[in-house]
Amino acid sequence: MYGEAMIDHFGINCADWDSSKTFYDKVLGVLGYSRQMDVGVAIGYGADGHPAFWIADASEGNVAGPNREVHVAFAAKDPESVQAFYQTALALGAEPLHEPRLWPEYHQNYYGAFVRDPDGNNVEAVFHGGGPERRA
């Protein structure tokens, strides 16, 4: 996997949602990035259809306790790696958020799993080539 990106995407929560949308629209726009996905309470910025940086409305319940969580998604090489990530995290005492599954609301072949790390951050492993049934 050397030469490929380790981080698939990451996101932050924003207390002033309207100001944050304006800010990131403009500062990322001058760098050549734009909104790739907008789901109302979260916006993904990037290029070529890949939202690599997300902002979320902190007032919409995207916060774990007093810590304003960060979301980081690590790129996985296959669906089995997503499953291994999830099982390893649980064995280490991580809080499960979403077990491995397809997420068609993101795209047809988005296969990911989510846990909360020891500091309360939302950590994900994602594979963009579909779930284990893709080989069937």
TrEMBL record:
Coiled coil: none annotated. Signal peptide: none annotated. It comes from the Bacteria. Residues 6-128 form the VOC domain. InterPro entries: Glyas_Bleomycin-R_OHBP_Dase, Glyas_Fos-R_dOase_dom, VOC_core. This is Glyoxalase. It comes from Mycolicibacterium duvalii.
